[in-house]
């Protein structure tokens, strides 16, 4: 498939070439259709008009912005209701450009009332919860068997999807037996019944691959495939599971929990069938692309016809409008050149080079810190040793000067029993006075009976 950008033909013309407005608008429109997928957009309806051809033209807006919309007759006739001015709605649309006017618009494929958005919010919350638990991790998903010996199908016996799957399997691989595990696909408590059938197929191990499928419908119709119990049963299945629920644009929680997600029930049958898978897939893709391109071309022609029918103006006025619009587009194209992007990239490269140059060398600083740590440890050790030596010296000196050492050499200390003070002079010794005599091996209380003081200069 050619992956060339739609702007390559415009850019390849050179800076001095003159590009027709139609070519530029066509390239912009093609780029928009390739870049933006189908998306749900919510807002309020304004300027609603139903053309004689059956196409709907309106705007959808909120408090900050608005966007023009078109819904062609082929899709509008299947809408469940007709929007009115001021209605809060949600549209599933593709971003396109109306080339004759060079205006952006939404090509609406489906419309619903805003209340259905609450189901979509619940879908997003459950999806985020299970994804955080690792239920959707690609590492846990298994490859489908290349040559299955039997194929299982979990769906309703009355579902049209079952007939489509069986027809496809009979056409592609009639030699493979098929086992159907019947379960309802719509209604209250359907998710638990579907989960029971998935667990039954996993427990029996009588099939090599299992298809969980149903046809298309609204988000309410498909809600059974968004229930947590079914998602956990699919994730815990011992048999590889292929999910084929709804149309190509429909996504359910079962799609994320399954090992492989197919766009439709028929696509699921083609994925598990061993014959011509790649060729048929490529053929279907090319056919769908051609059909979509042809359909959009017919829609653009129909829209152009409606516009011309409603906007008949004089040639002079039309030329003046187109001239003004062309001037505006030329100014916008000139201001959106590639130079700002190139300058920004060069500046980023320069800043990155400067950052690499001035980034600190952590290894050198780490070595310095380690050296300082070792020096600090050695200094603390030497200081501790000095303090221990000093304490030992002081303890030795204190031991030498201890009064107990003096008493051990034969001396005695005489203290007054009342005041506890030492008796230093013979005049303090009086008969009847009580004294405490401290010796090296203890002390004794004594009373003086006869005192004869004698003053001497020494022993």
UniProtKB/TrEMBL annotation:
Give the subcellular location: Cytoplasm
Residue span, OB-fold nucleic acid binding domain:
20-111
Which residue ranges does the record assign to the Exonuclease VII large subunit C-terminal domain? Answer: 135-445
CC terms in the record's Gene Ontology section: cytoplasm; exodeoxyribonuclease VII complex
GO molecular function, a single term: exodeoxyribonuclease VII activity
UniProt keyword Cytoplasm, yes or no = yes
Name a biological process GO annotation: DNA catabolic process
Q: Which UniProt keywords apply?
A: Cytoplasm, Exonuclease, Hydrolase, Nuclease
The keyword Hydrolase is annotated on this UniProt entry: yes
Q: What is its EC number?
A: 3.1.11.6
Q: What does this protein do?
A: Bidirectionally degrades single-stranded DNA into large acid-insoluble oligonucleotides, which are then degraded further into small acid-soluble oligonucleotides.
Checking HAMAP family in the record gives: Exonuc_7_L
Q: Mind telling me what this protein is named?
A: Exodeoxyribonuclease 7 large subunit
**Which organism's genome codes for this protein?**
Paraburkholderia piptadeniae
